Amino acid sequence: MKYLPFILKHLRHHWMRTASTVLAMVVCVFLFCTLETVIEAVNWGLRSANTSRLVVRNAISLFYSLPLTYKEKIREIPGVRRVAASDFWLLSFGGSADFFRHPSYSVDAEEYLAIYPEYILSAGETKAFLEDRRGAIVGPDTAKEFGWRVGDAIPLEDRTANLKPFEFVLRGIYRVDNVRYPGTDGRILFFHHKYLEEATQNRAGAGFLVVEIEDPQQASALSASIDALFENSERQTRTETESAFRAGIISMAGNLARLLNLIGVAVIFTILIVTANTMSMAVRQRRTEIGVLKTLGFGSRLVMALILGEALALGALGGTLGILLGNLAIEALPGLPAIGWAVQQFPNLGLSPAVASTGLALALLLSLAAGLVPAATAYRGKITELLRTV
Amino acid sequence: MSAEPQPVPEEVAVDVRDVRRVYRRDGQEITVLDGINLQVVEGEFLALMGPSGSGKTTLLNLIAGIDQPTSGQVRVAGTDLARLSEGALAQWRSRNVGFIFQFYNLIPVLTACDNVELPLLLTALSRKERRERALTALKVVGLADRANHAPRQLSGGQEQRVAIARAIVADPKVLVADEPTGDLDGKSAHEVLDLLVTLNQDFGKAIVMVTHDPRAAQRARTRRHLEKGVLEHRGVPNEVGP
Question: What value of ipTM does the predicted structure carry?
């Protein structure tokens, strides 16, 4: 510790060089934290997918619905346990039109709740919801955000099909158990698909059908059977496992995680080179000083440790600032106009301690790697050569 | 060339015997020092003179333990330097030799006091003790009032005095000075030489000083002359005035 002031005085004296190196580190750690957080959020969402659930949708696109009659036909296929219709709705409520932050689904309530045990309701709440066609249930996050309680009337405006305003009665607030069911979204509002059918004079259809199967091993075969069943119909289907369905939605533009990782690696590598070059130049400019330290009795190892210490101090400073900046950016992401909607799909988006500490470790490792060559040069340098003035 | 090894008297601070230093450059051998024998007793103030390239600085580096002879023996403060590992030699230097450079070589990011304190970082002294000793050393060189000044805020003469304070702060037995007045004006050079004389006479430091300047050499007790890597046989005693 007695050498710390020595190291810090060097960094302060060459503040321009220090600032630029720290800035490079900040950018590196900031990018790492934000990219990793997004990747982690994507993976977290996929973890909640159940292997015994299939999703059937229109083969053309999610924007085209399926006839509700498909439900019965699918239910008759051996190996299928339950089928529920579901659809994603752009409903604005509580003054919010933030559809992705406050998602709404119309569902065949009884089957849907049986297929999705992760939305935990008391027996009383389940009964009240199933018996009331105007009933709705909501996740604890949204209920807390709007201060809703069971029994409240919730007016909603439709932005999907421009239907007249709805008014639901809140019959339950589901609970989530992220230990048993990791990745459960605590923000969704569910209401009866039948209510929607009435409101649209049975023109609603189903955005997609959720199918619970008896044996996850048969997922591929059953998917093929379902698609084969509607091969010659007007609306062909595309059936896939729930995780594949979610992954497809999340990475419509390609392999998002790989793309983000590649960008991250490229940035980190570039910054490593820049930092290593800066450190080398700094040490080259201080040849005489290193010679003087060795003359005074500073051993080669100690001199090497001082240079590495300087590099680590830069890494620690850059890493910490990068994490703080990354955290601010992640908090601000959902509010950004261009990409906010996409980010809002990840309910757990936030800088995790694991990502933050990996970011800091990365900064330290990067600075150590950058300082290694100049430190080794200082270690090997002979005093008489170091003291020679050019 | 080499005589029978003579026993080293207690009071000998520096004992250089049959030292050769050969550099190899581009496949050629360049003999910089050839058969050097030199004894410096405790309390001695020796000026090493000679033209450029005569090997003065090389001999000084060998005495300071920052270079190794190709052959021969260098004993300083009773220690055979060839027997020490690199780490032990570094530790030995911090305790036994103070080095004064021509261009002062203060660390620009540190204050005068921090610069003087540097060698003490290698000791077990507390921060307070280190600071006290550094201030004492600065007081000896007459710069206690400049303790918190950065090197760039000091004149050349003052910088060299701070460098001298740094050289003496660990209380070494031997001081080696490489052209200590070579970068100074006449007045500052005079002050620095006065200081070296004081350190020699009042504090009993053995000093080996390399210089081109005959007036500087005149301040030492003895002068030796190096010519093409060979030391002249006998030293010339100076008449050192009060």
Answer: 0.89
